[in-house]
Amino acid sequence: MKNLENYMLKATTLEALEKVRVELFGKKGLLSKEFIKLKDIPGREKRAFAENLNKQKASLQKSFDKHYETLKAKAIRALLLSEKIDVSLYSNISNKGALHPVTETMDKIIDYFVAMNFAVHNGPMIEDDFHNFEALNLPTHHPARDMQDTFFCNDGKLLRTHTSPVQIRTMLKETPPIRMIAPGSVFRRDYDVTHTPMFHQIEGLVVDKEGVVSFANLKSILTDFLQYMFGDVEVRFRPSFFPFTEPSSEVDISCIFCEGEGCRICSHTGWLEVLGCGIVDENVFKAVGYENVSGYAFGLGIERFAMLLHRIPDLRTLFEGDIRLLEQFE
Ligand code: DAH
């Protein structure tokens, strides 16, 4: 039996040990053959023979189990070593990721206003009528509500149509002076070359004691901002209307494609409209309970900026996730 044990220990792999197992413990194995001999053993000696055989079998089985565990641990260690990945190895796969043009443009705009000491605020995308319309001087049935085709939810809530409600939320939470921007997604029922149902805006609001904030301040910061974004462009403020500002203005830059000569992109006007702004309407301050303050506000669409900066002709391509488009912005 000692020989059998030595023989077994010579197996150095699990496969070799399995072979040995069949040879020793199998149906036609050595041990079975020993047990068959039992029937030829005379009655008196039978018991001692059987006892001895069972003892040896148990001892052999114990050595076998131990050896099996050793070989198995060895095999696992070898497998782990062979499958080890050196994460520090240099790879020359060149699939570098990049920021989406909308994100990149949004970051660039935020950087400017943060440098100008504006705080960044966020608000919910699911809004209520009060914050999205009412408090912004857009009472029920006001015709200007039609300017923003709205997605309504069942419970009276709606998907915010602009980032302007963050103005209201911030004013209700804080006291002047306020100097904030609010970037985020907005939603409108629109879909064509220049409109998608979801897009992004940045809102700006500055409020201080009466007389501190003027239209001149607004003109100055927006002119500087637009030249930071588009380089050496002319900036023009054109009278316009927004319910939440009075007076209101739309802001144009000289066309960056034809330098004001007139082309298809600027509809031969030489100007590109880029944002809306104005002096905060008294009714907005009333809605949030502010008195003796003045302020200015502005709002712009980020996709419009990204399209102009990257000369992207169709807004919808920004949201199709086509890798061929995205690869151009690496
Ligand atoms: N909320 C306007 C829109 O979505 C954009 C806007 C215009 C915001 C003028 C303003 C503003 O704060 O003063 O079309």
What does this 3D model show about the protein?
This protein is α+β, with helices and mostly antiparallel strands and 330 residues long. The protein folds into 2 domains: 2-82; 101-326, BirA Bifunctional Protein, domain 2 (2-Layer Sandwich). It has helices spanning 2-9, 14-25, 30-36, 43-82, 101-115, 129-132, 165-173, 215-230, 282-288, 302-310, 323-326, and strands at 119-120, 126-127, 158-159, 178-187, 198-209, 235-242, 245-254, 271-280, 293-301. Strands 1-4-5-9-8-7-6 form a 7-stranded mixed β-sheet, sandwiched between helices. It has a two-stranded antiparallel sheet with strand order 2-3. Helix 1 (2-9) packs antiparallel against helix 2 (14-25) and helix 5 (101-115) packs across helix 10 (302-310). It is elongated. The mean pLDDT is 93. The structure holds 3,4-dihydroxyphenylalanine. 3,4-dihydroxyphenylalanine binds at residues 162, 164, 203, 242, 245, 276-278, 297-299. 3,4-dihydroxyphenylalanine binds next to strand 8 and strand 9.
